[in-house]
Amino acid sequence: MTSERANGLVHMTRTVCSVAADLAQNVERAVVGPARVRTATGNAWEAVLADRARASQRDEARRHLATLAATRR
Hints:
By secondary structure, this protein is mainly α. 86% of the residues lie in helices and 0% in strands. The protein is built from two helices and no strands. It has helices spanning 3-32, 40-72. The longest helix is centred in the C-terminal third of the chain and has 33 residues, at 40-72. The chain is elongated, with a radius of gyration of 25 Å.
């Protein structure tokens, strides 16, 4: 395969991927609405909230275990 042909193939592949990404984004906007489109910032905030929820559950479990340990003594 010549270098020129390989470059053309790479360019075509990038173009197809770009068009597919744009299509997926447009479909998402159409399905869920522009206000609910997932973004990196939204994903990060959801991760923060999930971490806080897990920490809260761990703290609650520790309190329950401490209460159980205190009542058994």
